[in-house]
Amino acid sequence: MLPATRLEEGMTLLERIREAIAATAWPDPPAGYRITLSGGLTDVRPGDMFMDVITRADRALYTAKNNGRNRVCRYDRITPISMTHSRESEIG
Hints:
Blueprint: H1 7-23, E1 39-41, H2 50-66, E2 72-74, H3 80-84, H4 87-91
Parallel strand pairs: 1-2
């Protein structure tokens, strides 16, 4: 949660964190693994209940994961196609 933060500021912050994690030389990760961050971001809208915000952020997070990981997605910029893109179609 980033209270009193605009979406653009939140994206900038999350991108900086994501880049720092990806650039870190982690000691002894298991073979074939690398440590990265995928994130989902949304805003709080008038009339939102807590679960409305969490649901949108979760959808954005899974869009990031399903579209290649190591990225941050904003809910207001994802499309129905990118929300349902499956990891299997990337692999096979």
